[in-house]
Automatic annotation (TrEMBL):
Annotated CDD domains: MltG_like (cd08010)
EC category: lyase
EC id: 4.2.2.29
Protein name in UniProt: Endolytic murein transglycosylase
Pfam family, one: YceG
Catalytic reaction list: a peptidoglycan chain = a peptidoglycan chain with N-acetyl-1,6-anhydromuramyl-[peptide] at the reducing end + a peptidoglycan chain with N-acetylglucosamine at the non-reducing end
Annotated InterPro entries: MLTG-like
Gene3D superfamilies: Classic Zinc Finger, Endolytic murein transglycosylase
Keyword Membrane annotated: yes
Residues annotated as site: Important for catalytic activity: 204
Functional note: Functions as a peptidoglycan terminase that cleaves nascent peptidoglycan strands endolytically to terminate their elongation.
Length: 329
């Protein structure tokens, strides 16, 4: 019996179609099935690397094991959207489909940097420059008191200048809100003055509960036309905020000729001496009511407060006893 040509052709077509369906089914299954990785894998996708380069990088990193399926999968599932460069943490066993979605949506690894309250702008500058996965230089340290200390999230490769801009905007926004809600009885005429005083309060104590009381002391002294006599302002006069003073202040230091020396000059310093945090700003804008005019360290990390000079002198004498006991001198 002679087979008709069209029967043979139909059989061949059927085989091709079946093969294509089988291959497509295998590819789709492989595209959506769990990948080879057995632990979270972090991969940095550089800019301009292209689909083939990404496939090669993920294959070498053990995230995928079939570059061809990955490249075809990108074309068929990306809906014309590009894979974004960045640093990605691929979960264990991530499928190629899920890995592609992660990069299309740009869900890159978020890093954190904490800017402690009370750092000077020069210290923040040094901290940012020492963070290796940030990019770009900073021309000069930002103006003192213009940056909000906080914990900031950022992406690998984000520019330092962009992060500084965020800190600056956050300070501006925060200050506007806090100033609008201030105790209207405080003797400040503008929000910039609040930042100056808050920076002094921030440097005076590490105890949050003391800040409103120390702010009250400074307000009481301002009302009586008394100098603030704040040691941190003298330290800033000596260092200009560029380094820490690695020794105690001396009597000669208190004579330092500088507009920042609040032993020699009445009123507030001309600018902030650090970047105050939110709580220090709140303390200055909502001080407690008190008659205190003096405070001195008490040896416990806090301060002893006094309304009169006689009381203060007794507190100072007690502080010197504590110092003597600690040093043996």
């Amino acid at each position: 019996m002679v087979r008709r040509p069209y029967i043979i052709l139909a059989g061949v077509v059927a085989l091709v179609v079946a093969g294509a369906i089988g291959a497509g089914s295998y590819g789709w299954h492989a595209f959506n099935s769990a990948g080879p990785s057995r632990q979270e894998t972090t991969v940095v996708i550089p800019k301009g690397i292209g689909i083939a380069g990404i496939a090669d990088l993920l294959n070498k990193s053990g995230v995928i094991d079939n570059e061809l399926i990955f490249k075809l999968g990108v074309k068929l599932s990306s809906e014309g959207k590009s894979l974004r460069a960045g640093e990605y943490a691929f979960p264990p066993g991530v499928s190629q489909h899920a890995a592609i979605r992660l990069m299309i949506e740009g869900k890159a690894v978020q890093h954190k940097i904490t800017i402690p309250e009370g750092l000077t702008s020069a210290e923040i500058y040094d901290l940012l420059m020492a963070t290796p996965i940030l990019d770009g230089a900073l021309a000069n340290p930002p103006a003192e008191g213009t940056l909000l200390p906080e914990t900031y999230q950022y992406l690998r490769g984000e520019s330092r200048a962009a992060l500084v801009d965020r800190m600056r905007r956050d300070m501006t926004t925060t200050l506007e809100k806090l100033w609008a809600d201030r105790d209207k009885s405080i003797p400040l005429s503008k929000s910039d003055e609040a930042v100056v005083l808050a920076s002094v309060v921030e440097k005076e104590t590490g105890k949050p509960e003391e800040r409103p009381r120390i702010a009250a002391v400074f307000y009481n002294r301002l009302k009586k036309n008394m100098p603030l006599q704040s040691d941190p302002t003298v330290i800033f006069a000596i260092t200009n905020g560029k380094k820490r003073l690695d020794r105690s202040l001396t009597y000669d230091d208190l004579k330092t000729d500088s507009p920042y020396n609040t032993y020699l000059n009445l009123g507030l310093p001309p600018t902030p001496i650090a970047n105050p945090g939110i709580e220090a700003l709140k303390a200055v804008l909502h001080p407690i009511k008190s008659k205190d005019l003096y405070f001195v360290a008490d040896g416990t990390g806090g301060h002893a407060f006094a309304e009169t000079l006689d009381e203060h002198n007794k507190n100072v004498a007690q502080w010197r006893k504590v110092q003597k006991a600690a040093t043996g001198n």
